[in-house]
Design goal:
Rossmann fold, 354 residues, six-stranded parallel beta sheet, globular, 14 helices, 12 strands, alpha/beta, 2 domains
């Protein structure tokens, strides 16, 4: 992998660093080892992260980050808002900006903010805006997204941290989560299983709500599980469809929690059953066993990271297609039956008692 600009980074003179976060929950979790690598390389520097409001809580309590700057249309609306953000970043006087997103706009923002050192992948015609633009290899596009971010930093001479997803839940956050769940009839000692039936990218990533409902009913009948439905407000219709198809009592948390609350509740789950989604990566980072159902996307690049995860996917010629909509009646998802998922889940649940 080559760097377009061969000027070395002046590692000894960097005091203030801005990291531009990616914009979706899963995409914000996967660069965490890269962020740890920035901290390892610059242990005495101040590190701030610029993040959209819906992912900013991923970085709360992260020991590698000194400041979280929230950036979205609610506080920086329109062109005038963007100029206010640029002026704000200028006053911060950052020495180095690291652009994790591949978008042109991410590089333009830090360029306009006058940050002298700007690094990122040389994509979307933005190389001219970066002082250190790294050309992507075809090989890195086939590797896991965690490696994608690490390789960019490695190419520029950063010291790499371990591939550990540094996602924290504070004791008080977990206690609040337990209190909320207790009010919903979930007690400490219950077998708590999370289900995440949504996925922001589109329906090709979503296993069917009626099948999730059938799975939830079996887990309640066979194990007395308390089943929690997770998701954003945008997932509520999917959650309601699951509830309509369920014959047992599942608990709908979709759109009812903050990201911090959802993170804490997921940390309490004994198992998390999910589509390829942001919350899948949250559960994996919290070391909760994950059963992940894949359809249109490629687990080689976006699978839950770490030990103990189970991936369910059908190898058919059209998958992974990476499309939002399907022209073949969602064959990759239709081939995944409730019995198959149940048996994989059952083996994990039974292992809790060994």
């Amino acid at each position: 992998m080559k760097v377009r600009n061969t000027k070395d980074l002046p590692f000894s003179n960097i005091r203030k660093i801005l990291i531009r976060s990616t914009n979706w929950i899963g995409d914000a979790v996967l660069p965490l080892p890269a962020i740890s690598s920035v901290r390892l390389t610059f242990p005495q520097s101040t590190i701030a992260i610029l993040a959209k409001s819906w992912v900013a809580e991923i970085f709360n309590s992260n020991p590698d980050i000194d400041e979280v700057i929230t950036y979205d249309d609610s506080n920086y609306t329109g062109i005038s808002g963007k100029w206010r953000l640029i002026r704000f970043l200028k006053r911060k006087a950052f020495d180095l900006a690291i652009c994790l997103p591949n978008a042109f706009g991410a590089a333009l923002l830090v360029y306009m903010a006058g940050i002298p050192l700007r690094l990122g992948y040389n994509t979307h015609g933005r190389g001219i805006l970066l002082t250190h633009a790294v050309n992507r290899s075809k090989r890195i596009l086939r590797r896991h997204q965690i490696d994608y971010y690490l390789e960019m930093l490695s190419t520029l001479g950063f010291t790499l941290a371990e591939k550990t997803l540094n996602l924290k839940v504070l004791a008080e956050e977990k206690e609040e989560a337990r209190q909320i769940l207790e009010r919903l009839g979930v007690r400490e000692g219950d077998l708590i299983i999370g289900i995440n039936p949504g996925a922001t990218y589109g329906p090709t990533k979503r296993w069917f709500p009626d099948r999730y409902a059938a799975l939830a009913d079996r887990l309640i009948d066979d194990f007395g599980a308390k089943v929690l439905i997770f998701g954003s407000q945008n997932d509520n219709n999917i959650a309601l469809e699951l509830i309509k198809n369920s014959k047992r009592g599942v608990i709908n948390l979709a759109g009812q929690t903050t990201l911090t609350q959802a993170k804490a509740m997921i940390s309490i789950c004994r198992l998390f059953i999910t589509n390829d989604s942001g919350l899948m990566h949250v559960a994996s980072a919290l070391k909760v066993p994950v059963v992940a159902i894949f359809g249109s996307t490629n687990p080689e690049t976006t699978s839950p990271f770490g030990e103990g995860s189970v991936i369910i996917k059908k190898d058919i010629p059209c998958s992974p297609c990476l499309k939002r909509e399907c022209e073949d009646d969602y064959l990759c998802m239709r081939l995944i039956e409730v019995d198959e998922v149940y048996e994989r889940v059952r083996s994990i649940v039974m292992s809790f008692h060994l």
